[in-house]
Design goal:
about 5% helix; mainly beta
Length: about 270
């Protein structure tokens, strides 16, 4: 699939609501090895009239001989002075889907002063044996049938980076462990396109002059100036019970952005202005 000419982020449908948040975002200087150890931080945006920074996600990958360990730290603003934090550690298989084998999750609600409240506290452990999940919460076990192919939300952030460096990445079908405790079957991840996107441009207002028969008309027009062209590999995740999710990676396997419905994640290796 050939790479197209460079385009603005706003020219891509799934990035259009996110365009303002991408202003001033520099391209990565050097992508880490997607199969090795890496750590990345994302800002979570709510996409309403304009992007609004609502939370954050930090992912760290530590490779092991039989797979990798992914640690996640997710923070979501829940209202004035209150945030919800979910921290997890997941041991994954060495396959393309980063299939989870064992995970522990803690969720806590915090006030701005850092003090925990106990209104939304919870702890969860889970295991997967290649066919069935066993979830343990509040001292009780709950078995869930999952089938032979499984991945999870943050595991896909890892998987697409390793798929992006393959010249012809295969489509993958699987079940999704959605936010650690619910299985959604009949999911698919496919290559959507290869394209070139300009990152780091600034949106400015310029006055456009038009000469008419009986005078001159001036009108303001938003235009992008500057930026760097980046070759991207774009994946799309669709399936039962989810909104389509679009992943934007560089050809070196660096996940830049993830967008779905009214929310999006933007990687924070540089300045991002919402």
């Amino acid at each position: 699939m050939a790479t197209r000419d460079a385009t603005r982020a706003a020219d891509h449908f799934s990035l259009r609501p996110l365009a303002r948040a991408l202003q001033g975002l520099p391209p990565p200087n050097q992508a880490p090895d997607p199969t090795g150890a890496w750590s990345s931080e994302f800002t979570l945006y709510s996409l309403n009239i304009r992007p609004w920074a609502q939370g954050s996600l930090k992912l760290t990958r530590s490779p092991e001989t039989d797979g990798a360990v992914l640690t996640s730290d997710y923070v979501l603003g829940c209202g004035p002075g209150v945030s919800f934090r979910v921290k997890g550690e997941t041991r994954c298989e060495s396959n393309q889907l980063a299939t989870p084998k064992m995970w522990t999750v803690t969720s806590r609600q915090h006030r701005n002063d850092g003090q925990e409240t106990h209104e939304a506290a919870g702890d969860l452990r889970g295991t997967y044996d290649g066919q069935r999940i066993v979830l343990t919460e509040y001292g009780r076990e709950r078995p869930v049938e999952a089938g032979p192919l499984l991945t999870w939300n943050w595991g896909l952030f890892d998987a697409v980076q390793r798929l992006a460096v393959i010249s012809n990445p295969p489509p993958l079908e699987f079940a999704l462990l959605d936010h650690f405790d619910q299985v959604k079957p009949e999911q698919a991840l496919r290559l959507r396109k290869r394209c070139r996107v300009t990152l780091g441009a600034k949106l400015i207002v310029e006055e456009q002059k038009t000469e008419l028969e009986h005078g001159t008309v001036f009108r303001p027009e938003h235009v992008e100036r500057g930026g760097t062209e980046v070759d991207c590999v774009v994946f799309e995740h669709t399936g039962r019970g989810i909104l389509p999710i679009v992943y934007w990676c560089t050809t070196a396997g660096y996940l830049l952005m993830v967008s779905s419905g009214l929310e999006a994640y933007v990687r924070q290796d540089g300045r991002v202005k919402p």
